[in-house]
């Protein structure tokens, strides 16, 4: 198996054959290089067919490596630390929001709408209609002139 290492825009390919003189080829053309490693400087992320041969054995590989100039390499420990710190900060904010909202729930003045809480205000009685005023005990003389008519 080929070993491919990518760092920035440099791609280093190691041939699986270790003994003898190794000849490298890209897209069918021979490349003048010696050794079991072939280094491509400033790779443009274009796919290519790479082959290495030594002692009558030829190994072919399709190289489709994406490279970038501004990439940063992170190890697993750094990624784990970033994720752990993010989770701890998120849970801390959640706990703070929970405790502050829990305290606000009990206050009477913090309700929405601006209406006072507590006892509900009772409506005053409706204004009586003078045509249908009830007969009260000391006011019989007001209605004394009214007599029932016989039909």
TrEMBL record:
Gene3D superfamilies, per the entry: Immunoglobulins
One Gene Ontology cellular component: external side of plasma membrane
Disordered: annotated span: 106-139
One example of a Gene Ontology biological process annotation: positive thymic T cell selection
Pfam families: Ig_5
Primary location: membrane
Localization annotation: Cell membrane
GO molecular function per UniProt: transmembrane signaling receptor activity
Topology versus the membrane: Single-pass type I membrane protein
InterPro entries with a match to the protein in the record: CD3_esu/gsu/dsu, Ig-like_fold, Phos_immunorcpt_sig_ITAM
Ranges that cross the membrane: 76-100
Record keyword Signal present: yes
Protein keywords: Cell membrane, Immunity, Immunoglobulin domain, Membrane, Receptor, Signal, Transmembrane, Transmembrane helix
Record-linked PROSITE patterns: ITAM_1
Name of this protein: T-cell surface glycoprotein CD3 epsilon chain
Species per Swiss-Prot/TrEMBL record: Nipponia nippon (Crested ibis)
